Amino acid sequence: MYILGGIIKTMAGEDIEDGYIHLVNGKIAEIGRRDEFKVHPAAHERVLKIQDGIIMPGIIEAHCHMGITEEKKGMEGDDCNETVDPITPWLRAIDAVNTMDAAFDDALRAGITTAMIGPGSSNVVGGQFALLKTSGRRVDDLVVKAPAAMKVAFGENPKVNYSGQGKSPSTRMAIAGMLRKELSRARQYARDKENAARQGETFQQDFTLECWLPVLNKEIPLKAHVHRVDDIFTAIRIAREFDLNMTLDHCSEGHLIAEELAAEGFPAIVGPDFASRSKIEVQNVAFKTAGVLNRAGVMTAITTDHPVSLIQSLPLCVGMAVKAGLPMEEGYKAMTIYAADICGVGDRMGSLEVGKDANLAIFDGNPMEVFTETLYTIIDGEIVYEAGK
User: Is this model's pTM higher than 0.85 or not?
Assistant: First the structure.
């Protein structure tokens, strides 16, 4: 497939005006200025001629519960939180994602090609997130990376859930203590497994602890649900104690400690700012947070936390952050290359470069503006959404 014309926002340098892109076998094979275009497409290749549109990497939602908390289904479609045990690292999002959820089609219509999907925040450890493409019926075929992160949660949600059941955690101290205990068990398990391998001994695997090895080996990050300043710092304290990678998800009071977060070096996934301030720990939610963090030097993506805010509102959430001070180009990056890097797949997607996955979104204008229409959404070089069809 060839895409001709338009403004190509590569997210890897300068924009290309009146450019061209050649997609082959699900990858970007060529990209450049249209006046450099000398190859005539083969008879079987489709050519998309874009006049005044914007061609950009497919949008990435870095944190949501699409398909695991289904719309219009109530309890029957809600598989987000296993609220009977506060420590459940062995749970896998891919076992609960229903790709028939209407949110997947909404995502495609918004130019969203990839989504990080996983358990909610009722548990201290909720389980494993998966990074999925947004088009397809069989979840196994959608997987970009699984597991992609391990969900942990601080603050109000685990407290409310378990104090109501008359068991721990009912305080922030217990949340931190229980997480440390679990990480200590996992670290000892890893040491025992390594020692057994070194000595040639048989080792009995425990799948409830085996799931921690990618975290301990820094192959995937902790995905920390944090809103308040104190919870953010507790998450950082524990990540430092155990030498782990981590993303700060929601980070609602991040703008109050932006310089400290920049010095720590953990990325942030901010939002959902379209949602109401429905509980005490989100009283300082503001669209300015992303811009303040960005200017301080924190790599920042933006989330809808679907279904807290609808998945299709992601570009508009970015637009509101831009209105509140996030630079426009940084807004584009927040939903593409920064999101890809934070999700651990910046080598595959998030920018338009030769060799990367052919995931693109084409709009008739700036996607952050409410009247902009998605013209095409392309995943792995195939058109999965076309306006008017």
Answer: yes
